């Protein structure tokens, strides 16, 4: 299904194949020979999405462009089943395995691998050819790549990157952080009320 969102409709190259149960919404450009499989969601939520030639977005993956961070996925990439990409730049020939997550402002260098259930945190920069092992976490620039058991080191880097401020514009120490976060984010998402099906 293709949806116009905030006046922008997806643009799908005539050689691309989008499964009927995939959802493509807003300012999304799907390149030559791209394959988007069943259940995938590719949505421009304030930032556009560009997917390069011969890239594959597999079942139930989510690719989300956000305010302040568009998504660019280069040529010949594979976004695995249940992978999640939000506001990141994925250079060509990158493998994002099943269940991997890449967050706002991250850059995954050419030819890198983010393996099963691995996480690349916001504003993390992976040099070309980097591998994030199964279930591990990459955080920061230069990146700390470590086991999820190394919570203290990950937490120290995450605090520097300041997820609430960077993504939602909110101070981490705001007393009613979740109230403000959900109200602000909910208002952004409510813009979908006026989406229009442009699949035909």
The succession of helices and strands, N to C, reads EEEEEEEEEEEEEEEEEEEEEEEHHHE
Strand order of the largest sheet: 23-22-19-16-13-10-7-4-1-24
| Total number of helices | 3
Query: Sheet with the most strands?
Result: 10 strands, mixed
Strand content of the residues, in percent? 25-35%
Roughly how many Å apart are the termini? 9 Å
Which structural class best describes the helix and strand composition?
A: alpha/beta
Number of domains: 1
Protein name: Gamma carbonic anhydrase family protein
Organism: Gryllotalpicola daejeonensis
InterPro entries: Transf_Hexapept/Carb_Anhydrase, Trimer_LpxA-like_sf
Provide a concise account of the structure shown.
The chain has 200 residues and is an alpha/beta fold.
Would you give an account of this structure?
With 200 residues, the chain is α/β, with parallel strands linked by helices. The chain has one domain (2-197): 3 Solenoid (UDP N-Acetylglucosamine Acyltransferase, domain 1). It is built from three helices and 24 strands. The strands form three sheets. It has a ten-stranded mixed beta sheet with strand order 23-22-19-16-13-10-7-4-1-24, with helices on one face. It is globular. The mean pLDDT is 95. This is Gamma carbonic anhydrase family protein. InterPro entries: Transf_Hexapept/Carb_Anhydrase (IPR050484), Trimer_LpxA-like_sf (IPR011004).
What structural keywords apply?
single chain, 200 residues, alpha/beta, UDP N-Acetylglucosamine Acyltransferase, domain 1, 10-stranded mixed β-sheet, 7-stranded parallel β-sheet, 3 helices, 24 strands, 15% helix, Trimer_LpxA-like_sf, Transf_Hexapept/Carb_Anhydrase, Gamma carbonic anhydrase family protein
């Amino acid at each position: 299904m293709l949806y116009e969102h905030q006046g922008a409709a997806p643009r799908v190259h005539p050689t691309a194949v989008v499964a009927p149960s995939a959802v493509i919404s807003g300012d999304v450009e799907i390149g030559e020979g791209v394959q988007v499989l069943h259940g995938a969601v590719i949505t421009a939520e304030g930032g556009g999405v560009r997917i390069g030639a011969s890239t594959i977005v597999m079942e139930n993956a989510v690719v989300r462009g956000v305010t302040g961070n568009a998504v660019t996925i280069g040529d010949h990439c594979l976004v695995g089943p249940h992978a999640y990409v939000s506001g990141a730049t994925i250079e060509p020939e990158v493998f994002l395995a099943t269940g991997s997550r890449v967050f706002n402002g991250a850059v995954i260098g050419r030819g890198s691998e983010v393996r099963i259930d691995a996480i690349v945190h916001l504003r993390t920069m992976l040099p070309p050819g980097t591998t994030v092992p199964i279930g591990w976490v990459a955080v920061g620039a230069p990146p700390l790549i470590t086991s999820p058991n190394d919570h203290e080191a990950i937490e120290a880097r995450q605090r520097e990157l300041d997820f609430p401020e960077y993504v939602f514009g909110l101070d981490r120490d705001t007393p009613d952080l979740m109230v403000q976060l959900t109200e602000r984010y909910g208002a952004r998402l409510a813009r979908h009320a006026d989406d229009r099906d442009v699949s035909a």
